[in-house]
Amino acid sequence: MEWETWFAIDWQQLLGISLSAVGFYLGLMLFTRLMGLRSFSKLSSHDFAMTVGIGSILASTVLSDTPSLMQGLFAVAVLFVIQGLISLIRRNVKSLKSLIDNQPIIVMAHGEYFWDNLAEANLSTSDVQEVLRKNGIKSKTEVFAVIMETTGDMSVIKNNDVTPDWSLFDDIRDSELLIKSDKNVF
User: Fold this and answer.
1) How far apart, in whole angstroms, are the C-alpha atoms of residue 108 and residue 112?
2) Longest Cα separation, the chain
3) Are 148 and 154 in contact (CB under 8 A)?
4) Alpha-carbon distance 149 to 130, whole Å?
5) Taking residues 145-168, what's their average pLDDT?
6) Contact (CB, 8 A) for 104 and 150
C-alpha cells in the first residue's frame, strides 16, 4: 500500500461521508423520539447489544458505499422495533422476563464475599476491590452489599443506620442472603 493513498480523500468521499453522517444522525434522532428514552439506555444486556449493533451499522453505512444510507437506516429501524418488542414483552409477560433478562447477583454483603456468586459471575476479588475503591470504600465493613447488575455494572451499597427497604432487593438472585446476613435482623 502506498502512503499517499492511505491518507488520501477526495471531495466526493467527503461529501458522501458528510451526507451519510447527517442522514444517519437525523434518522437516529427520529427513531429515538419515536421509541422513547430507553433507546440508548444500558439497563439490560439487550440494550447493550442494541447500542453495539447501531454503532456497527453506523460505521459501515457512513464510511462505505454499501450498505447504502437507506439500507443502514432500515437496519437500525429493525433494531429499534426489536428493542420495542422485547421491552413490551418484558413489561407484560412476566414468565418470559426471566428468559430475556439476566438477574442481578450479590457478590458481597456485610464485608464478606459470596464465593459461589463471584465464580458464577466470572469475577475475581480484585474486580470487586477495584469497584469498592472507585466508590470511596476504605474498609469492607463499610459495605452493605455489592451487586452485579444485569448490565454487568456493579452497584455498591454502603452501610448506614437506615433500615433497608427490602423491596429494593427482591429482584436480585439470592436476596435472602442479604436478609440472613444483615446483622440488624433477628
Assistant:
1) 5
2) 75
3) yes
4) 16
5) 89
6) yes
Residue 181 has pLDDT above 60, yes or no: no
pLDDT band with cut points at 50, 70 and 90 for residue 182: very low
- Between strands 154-158 and 112-113, the pairing is unpaired
Pairing state between β 112-113 and 105-109? antiparallel
Residue 112 to residues 43, 118, 165: CA-CA distances in angstroms? 27, 11, 21
- Which pTM does this prediction carry? 0.70
Phi, psi at residue 121, to the nearest 5°? -85, 0
Instruction: Report the pLDDT value the prediction gives residue 93, as an integer from 0 to 100.
Output: 87
31-51: per-residue pLDDT in tens? 988 887 777 777 777 778 888
Cell of 126: 480484585
pLDDT at 136 over 50: yes
